Records
---
Amino acid sequence: MYTRSIVALLIFSSCCIWPSAWAEPVVDDDFNPLGYYTFRQDLRRCVSPRCGGLFVKAVNQKLTRCADGVKRTECYVALLANPHGLAIGSASLLQGRIRPKRFSGFGNLGVFKLRAAISSATASTGEGTVVGLQDNGIVCITAPCFSYDEFVLNRNKILLLSGIDLEASGAAEQDIDNARRLLADGETLLAAGVNKRMAARAGAGTAFFANQLYFPIEPESP
């Protein structure tokens, strides 16, 4: 009985601490929040490889560092290196790296080395901040309970969340169920949305309201 009381007291105390007093969340070694880009096909009519590649733009950033080292609003890359044969036609985000690559007679036009392709749950454009969400395993007996970690993509920034609203995304119920399953299994859910302060019994919390959900595209079967 005494042991249970001590445990309950420790849990209650942790739930009532303002989040700024918490230790830094532990970064999941399996999740890399860097190297995420939106992209669009280059439809200009000029000779390849100067045209016909991709324009890529780092998410959550005003400028993107291009193959020549210069930061621009978006970068042209003449080649997509896609070793896993991922179908990017339905993708909304790409994860990878922009690297220099010289083309004979054209100079350094760059290559995008693809690591992952990610599709969106709906046709709408995600607004706000694109993040990775994880269940951090914290369990409380009162609210707010900061039981989620929010990794801001392409930034060295991690926030603690007391709640996540997936229904605001407008995604199909099956996609929302898949998103919940990812979180329950300890995986990272990618989403776009905004944070809002929420009143709770033991103080103010912060909830993430998603307006877009993202899921990885699996390699096509041979």
---
Amino acid sequence: MPGGQGGGNGGNAGDGMPGGQGGDNAGNAGAAGSGGEGGAAGMGGAGAVGGNAGNAGAAGSGGEGGAAGMGGAGAVGGNGGNGGNGGTIDPPDPDPITLATFNIRVFGKTKREKPEIMSQLVSIVRSYDIVAIQEIKDASLETPGIFLDAINAAGGNTYDMRVSERTGQQPDDTSASDEQYAYYFDTTAVTARDDGQLFDDSTQDLFQREPFVAQFATVEGDFTFVLINVHTKPTEALAEIDALHDVIGWSQLAYPAEDDFIALGDFNAGCDYASPEELDLLDIRGDDYVWLIPDTADTNLAGRECAYDRIVGTEPVADHFTDVWGVDEAFVDAAVSDHWPVWVELTPTE
């Protein structure tokens, strides 16, 4: 009964360890003024000395020392309350996060008003913790928010987004450059550290569509990272991929405390636009970078196998990469897109 049993059961304390020094001071276990059953404290881990049984659980691996407190609510239990201190258990490592990139071809009013396509797009985004989207083309700027509403209307974890201004901000950029980038992320796994910004391309005019840079952090663990979302001009793919090295340098100045920078998107880094041999000549293929999606990946629905879509990190990102990656062949209808999402798995701890 709670707090009521007297302290006369100390004799069990000698059970502290097989073959051990059991029982000499077993009477101490029953010394609880009002706490009965204190003698059970001797069930501590291997190596526990049976004497002073109330604290026996503190030795060895800690075993069942916690049973000392059998006196019920309010019972002192013969010092048995210390039994749980026998050993420490490290918390489990946080689950990896999944990072994806997806060019949703000409994503605007026409596509978003097709329920069957929107349903597939929602399902794809909800498969990942954070997704970088390219080729949002909507002069009204409404599509990103409408898509977020559809993602959350599907139920489950709440998603948020960070969306860019329209790209193509330099005088020589054509109307084909007028796109938005977006990041959609599961708020139970990832948080945004800022609103993001387009790369300042006003001095060198390196891109038809300026990359979108933003910082994020995992909810669990201590992993922060900067994402650089890009859709290169196909006929200038090599030059724009090479210029990502400059964008990363610019981003390192913007985020001086950050080590992990990840460029991702539709690089057009394959087939007629960029061969592996040509890519190998670029700074961004040097030892300071790790390409998480290989040249052999097929990321598009066309008949040819082309690794257009990529995820590339600065060297420290390799410590987070689990070597798990994939191309999500979630659809076969080019009305959804002409690109498949590509994704990698990153652990929040090194």
---
Amino acid sequence: MSGEQLYCKVCGARLTDPQCFCPSCGAKLEESNTKSNPNSNGTSQNSNESNNNANGSNQNSNGSSGNTIVIVILVILGLVAFGQCSSSNDPDNWGAAYDWGPDHYWDTNSHSVKEKTKCVARGTLITMADGTEKAIEDLKITDKILAFDHMLGEYVEADPIAVYNHGYALYHAVDLEFSDGKTLCVIEGHTLFDLDLMKYVEITPDNCTDYIGHSFVKYSDKETVDSSVLISANAYDKYDEAWGTWGFSKLSCVTNGILSIPNAEGTYNYFMYDDDLKYNEEAMASDIEKYGLYTYEDWADLIPYSLFEGFNFQYFKVAIGKGLANHETYMDYIELFYELSNEYE
């Protein structure tokens, strides 16, 4: 950012060279987030527009039917992210690697705190299927992550069904510290498995201190269900990026060594868990007999099969029966998907 006077596109403040963040509004400064002096001859602006058009063309050519599914996943959890996609109902094309660049960040309005996003901070480490860790912002759809299968009661390999970035903004955050020294920065809210309550609980800035002293599932090895006690929770506002991911059909992942699952009502806790975190087979059979299961035919006019399979739509009938969500909840998710699909088609 040198050679000419630049201004922040978010608030219009004059920028000095070099800077990473706007000194006025706090917005993260990328090339796409700055503009040259409006009184200049426009050469730089035209060049940037040309580059942006080129980038858009590349993104469209690199996109696949899987990009639609990525968008489906984002919206099914009420998570609005920006991207380009193409439409497909092909169940064999679950998703392709999609690189969320700076042009896909949310609007960074520093004058309000984002409250709907529920994720983890940039730099959070995701445990891979081979036991190594990777920063969530470096994760790709083609990677294999570690997830917990509550049907089997064990850790398994899973495909990330989305890797999403809500962008740089001012968020409500919580720094969680555990007895083994592990820490986790939660953005607005995130869901962890509470061994004291034997269910997933959403930890937010408002309720975080309620869970101090509770034991949560941590990853040690694939054969062990280990635990760590939450010893402190500090809520505050911070500028950061909010990232998220989850495993196909398992929905869970391991974040900074702690088992977690993205928060979306009606997508977890629909069955009772045993001490080994496996679904209690007797209680599960009873719930299914009582409430029934959805089939794909129940949703075939609304969603692709890959979405039905990836998010365990069959069990949503149990979730509705237990009052964890209602039919309108899922219809809202689907409606949002189509709105976003049409916008970025």
---
Amino acid sequence: MEKLRMLAVLLICLVAMGAKLSDSVCRVENHFNSFCQSCNRSHDKIGMGSGVLVASQQVLTVNHGFPNGVGQLICQFPNERHNAKVLSQRPDLDLALLGIGPTKLIPMPVAKDMPQRGHTLTLAGFGGEGVYRTISGQMLNYAHVRTTRDGWNHTILTMVGTARQGDSGGPVYNTSKELVAILKGTGSGTTDGIDLREIRKVLSACVGGVCRPQPWRPSMPRAPQPRRPLVPLAPRAESTQLAALTKKVERLEALLVELQRKCQTPAAPGEPGPQGPPGALAEFNVDKIVTEVARRLPPITFRIMVPKGTILPDRGDTEYEVGEESKTHLGETQDYFLVPKGSN
């Protein structure tokens, strides 16, 4: 009797050693009926995803793999095919636990420790074509996902590596072949996985194929807050004067550009005569023109507010005025305020 027991244990160990890690990964098929509006008839469709055996007769996958509802579910392992049913759905965690019939397959063990940044992780799945593939890369960071449309509210990890369409729901495991995340999505050379903490929440609620209901509330958008009415500010005298000065400067710049363009344009050929050969370029004295234009512009005078006690240079074209409210302290930089003359 003892020899038979030892032989049975040895046989189990040999089976476990010969089992491949891919044997615990499956392709999840969701067969459902869809109505075609344009052709006015119904037809069968199949949604494709991946999953992983995490316990006896239990397969873990993503909940967003059933956007059109749950139809006839099939878990296709490399060497076994099982009909499946939903044991638990957690839309907030984006996880779904499926139940299958009795199997000899060995579940993938769930890791005890969270992976850290820089650790090597491997993602696995069957893709949309049903071809098993793995990709390894370094773990980058953790992030929290919270959306109002899908009701997601969970933590994810990000790793280097690009998954395929149909890999969602597959496992992400560490170098010890232990499950650390469920593949969620991919993009820009990285892949996101629902992390270990969320996996434990789902598995702890299901024992022996019986799952305790896990109430959840989708994230609700916050009520819009009324905006305060904008109060228009009264225009200041300085702003008005500065705006007028800016317009005058812009007009002067436009005039200079036009004059330079004309100076570079050859004049039309003239009639031959004693003045010179035809086709001579027109000559303009730009400096003289600019001086004349500036002279014709309305005069702009300014006053400068300076602190009391400041010695000002004697300039005939500037009027200085000592500010009554000006104060200075030892070591501070003195500010000079250029204000149009006559403003408040």
